[in-house]
Amino acid sequence: MLLVIDVGNTSSAIGVYKNNTLIGNWRISTDKERTSDETGMFLISMLNTAGISPDHIRDVIMCSVVPPAMHSIVNAIKKYIKKTPLIVGIGVKTGINIKYENPKEIGSDKIVNAVAALKLYGGPVIIVDFGTATTFCAVNSKGDYKGGIICPGIKISAEALFSKASKLPRIEIVKPKHIIGRNTVNSMQSGIFYGFVGQVEYIVGLMKAEMGESGIKVVATGGMANLIASETKSIDIVNPNLSLEGLKFIYELNSKV
């Protein structure tokens, strides 16, 4: 079995593959202050809930955009899973060509998502990740990672409204019944929801025009992907486990070396 871990700014996705089947997956908050023992016990507990023994984990691969959390997580894996994880970064084969001015600047999560989207759906493809930031990544038909866009995420945008405007409350992010809100909460929900739908449609349209290829697919992932995809035809596919799939593909590519 293969343990895959994607450490994000707000939350971390964890999965276990048995051959090509994802037999368990979880999401926990990313805590830079969590000790390696606490992290290890989290891992063991999650594996136990799926009836998976740590002894059955043959290998571990992970990516992270949170360097301060890495020491604790890597030590937890070594101590409790008794494996040294393969960490996606410079020197790890991905199967895609990075056409970025400074490849070191690209978050490994973006590369992992691009690998999965290209492998599963082919290129050209645009990946929209609704995480702490909303990111858009472009991969052409040759498998070249061309670059992307980084925007404030949906949740942090809503939180900014609450924290910076004294009279505005914290809201649940849902699709409102009407575009024109009849109270403060509905007005905020409408602004957040339809604002991000419009953002996706406009940015995807500009990206497609600049990429200049036909048949570009748009794949969405992240916590808010299904919500936004429900309102726009700009998104073709929603895959909540895109990063986990990408980690599996990268592991398979590197295990053949």
Description:
- With 257 residues, the chain is α/β, with parallel strands linked by helices.
- It has two domains: 2-87, ATPase, nucleotide binding domain (Nucleotidyltransferase, domain 5), CATH 3.30.420; 97-240, ATPase, nucleotide binding domain (Nucleotidyltransferase, domain 5, 2-Layer Sandwich).
- 39% of the residues lie in helices and 25% in strands.
- The protein is built from seven helices and eleven strands.
- The protein has helices spanning 36-49, 67-81, 108-121, 154-164, 184-211, 225-229, 242-255; strands at residues 2-7, 11-18, 21-29, 59-64, 86-87, 97-98, 125-130, 133-139, 144-152, 217-222, 237-238.
- The strands form two sheets. The protein has a six-stranded mixed sheet, with helices on both faces. Strands 3-2-1-4-5 form a five-stranded mixed sheet, sandwiched between helices.
- A hairpin with a 2-residue loop joins β7 (125-130) and β8 (133-139).
- α3 packs across α7 (242-255).
- The two termini are 19 Å apart.
In short:
39% of the residues lie in helices and 25% in strands. The chain has 257 residues and is α/β, with parallel strands linked by helices.
